[in-house]
C-alpha cells in the first residue's frame, strides 16, 4: 500500500463538486488473467455490495471474477452469460441494486480488440458508452465502475472514489461508487435516501 486515507478533493470535473476520495495502493494481480481484480479491489467491491444474497448484483465484463448474481463476459467460463455486453444490455429488462463493471481499457493488442468485436477500449467506444449510460439509468440503483477514468452517467452522483495506485509507471485506476440522484428517480428514491444515511466504508 502506497498511500491511504480520506481526502476531500475537487474531482468531479465539470460540476466541480467536492467528492469523497480515498487514495490507496492497488495491489498486485497475480491471477495470470490480464485486468483481473487485485485482492484490494475485490475487497473494496465486496464491502460496497455487502453480504451475498442481500442485494441483486449484475457484473458486466466480469472476467474471471465470481462477484455478482449475473456475470456477463465474452470469453470466460466463470461468467453466467458468455455474451457481448452490448447485446445483453439491449435485451435485459431487470432492475439491479448494484451494477459492477470493469470494461477493457488500455488494450494493447489489436487481436484482442478484434475478438471483442471492437476497435477501441470502452472509454473510447461511443456506441457502447451511450448504451451503458442508458441501461444504467433505467436499471441500476448503484454502480461500481473500475476504469482508467471516472465516468459519471447522467442521473448519477458520485458517492465515493478510490484512486488506485498500481505502482511503477502504470496508469492510475479509479474505482467509482455512483448512486442514483434521488430527485430524478421516484421509484427507488426512498431506498436511496435511506442508504445515504449509512456509514461510509
Ligand atoms: C478488464 S477485464 C475484467 C476482468 C475482471 N475484472 C476480472 O477480475 O477478471 C475486461 C473483460 O471484459 C471482457 N469483454 C471485453 N469486451 C467485451 C464485450 N463487448 N462484451 C462482453 N465482455 C467483454 C473481456 O473478456 C475481459 O474479461
Helix and strand arrangement:
Elements: E1 6-10, E2 18-25, H1 39-49, E3 57-60, E4 70-72, H2 85-91, E5 96-101, H3 110-116, H4 126-139, E6 140-147, E7 156-165, E8 173-180, H5 186-196
The structure holds S-adenosylmethionine.
Radius of gyration: 16 Å
Q: Compute the average pLDDT.
A: 84
Shape: globular
Give the amount of beta strand, in percent.
25-35%
Number of helices: 5
**How many strand elements?**
8
- How far is it from the N-terminal to the C-terminal residue, by CA? 17 Å
Can you give the helix content as a percent range? 10-25%
Listed once per kind, the bound small molecules are: S-adenosylmethionine
Tell me about the biggest sheet?
A: 8 strands, mixed
Catalogue the unreliable spans.
1-12
Give short descriptive properties of this protein.
eight-stranded mixed beta sheet, alpha/beta, about 200 residues, about 25% strand, binds S-adenosylmethionine
Report what the structure shows.
The chain has helices spanning 39-49, 85-91, 110-116, 126-139, 186-196, and strands at residues 6-10, 18-25, 57-60, 70-72, 96-101, 140-147, 156-165, 173-180. It is of the alpha/beta class. It has a domain at 38-152. The protein has an eight-stranded mixed sheet with strand order 1-2-7-8-6-5-3-4, with helices on both faces. Strand 7 and strand 8 form a beta hairpin. It is globular and about 40 Å long. The structure holds S-adenosylmethionine. S-adenosylmethionine is lined by residues 33, 35-37, 61-65, 72-76, 84-86, 102, 104, 116.
